[in-house]
Specification:
Layout: E1 2-7, E2 12-17, H1 28-46, H2 48-51, E3 53-58, E4 61-66, H3 73-93, E5 98-102, H4 108-112
Parallel strand pairs: 1-5
Antiparallel strand pairs: 1-2, 2-4, 3-4
């Protein structure tokens, strides 16, 4: 299972584990998770001087954190929120493969209530 944790206040998105929804190299859930994280990484790298991104990735893990300048905080937060929404949709549709949690302990299911 891939565990995704989003710390909205800290602008930190972490992902760890393997979705195991298919054979290695053919796992569409894993591909979707990776593409969303790579999209956020690209967006933050485009504004690197203003959002100060820190990215770490390896087999089964991906982390993006930003410490934006005040003028870039809104763009940064909107980008993180959008990607987190996509990750939450994956968790809703494939709960056996993905879990999504907000750093404060709320899950995507509790968020909808």
């Amino acid at each position: 299972m891939t565990r995704v944790c989003y710390d909205r206040a800290g602008l930190l998105l972490r992902m760890a584990g393997h979705a195991q929804a298919g054979p290695e190299g053919q796992d569409l859930v894993c591909a979707a998770l990776s593409m969303l994280m790579m999209t956020l990484e690209r967006r933050m790298q485009e504004r690197a001087e203003a959002v100060l991104p820190v990215v770490s990735r390896g087999p089964g893990s991906f982390m993006i954190r930003c410490a934006p300048e005040p003028e870039a905080e809104r763009l940064c937060r909107e980008s993180f929120d959008t990607i987190a929404a996509g990750l939450a949709v994956l968790a809703e549709n494939r709960p056996e493969c993905v879990s999504f949690t907000l750093e404060n302990g709320e899950t995507d299911e509790e968020e909808e209530e």
